[in-house]
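INFO batch 0412 | record 1 of 1 | parsing
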Amino acid sequence: MSRQTIHSDNAPCAIGTYSQAVQIDKTVYLSGQIPLNPTTMSVVSGGIEAEIRQVFTNLAAVTHAAGGNLNDLVKLNVYLTNLGDFPQVNNVMAEFFQQPYPARAAVGVAALPLGVAVEMDGIMVLP
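INFO prediction complete | emitting tokens
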């Protein structure tokens, strides 16, 4: 079993004691991404769709650093402070993914880091 950490300068640096992703053999476990601009490390403005779009952009940067892309995700977990925002997740997700889509869960949570409305993590298997 080979284990390595994955890092992308095009995604926000970790704001705690974790790696952006960890790869074991061909499986990559992506840590949760929130809608931080990786350059300024500030939360993006523009509402829930802008936040969702930034989260997918951040996840894409980490998948690329691991040698894959978003379509290599096999599992996506979405955490929302308002489950009423779930239709926007579907709308924005369609901009980033092609079929077959990953398995997915949506979880309503009371709060997320820095007061954001959405966080996502996932599992990717490299070809």
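INFO post-check: The chain has one domain: 3-125.
INFO record closed
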